[in-house]
Amino acid sequence: LVVLLFVNLKLKTRIDEKGVYYQFFPFQFSFKFDAWNTISTCYIRKYNGLTEFGGWGMKRKIYGKGRCYTTKGTIGLQIEFKNGKQLLIGSQHKEELQRTLDTYKSKIIKN
After folding, report:
1. Rounded distance, CA 9 to CA 71, Å?
2. Largest alpha-carbon pair distance within the chain?
3. DSSP three-state, residue 110
4. Shortest CA distance to 14 belongs to which of 1, 33, 28?
5. In angstroms, rounded to a whole number, what is the distance separating the alpha carbons of residues 51 and 106?
6. What pTM, to 2 d.p., does this model score?
């Protein structure tokens, strides 16, 4: 049963003119959504899942107000919200993510 769970893990991310959508299946059956007007900044960064979050998966940061959704790798989209919280979404598609982020990053409203 555990092996079946790990085989079916899927992290899906979508970025458009409204904001960032993400889903960590099978733990989330629908996409979570964060609108651009709630985000203070976002960028691609390298991370260490083990030392920063205690592993991969759906995790909370060991110190601070962050959480992450990762399956493998060391590259992710770091989102910092206007309320001080943080979110890291892992990605295996750095170049595609950068192009998409460059397209929509102007949607972030600075306050």
Report:
1. 8
2. 48
3. coil
4. 33
5. 32
6. 0.84
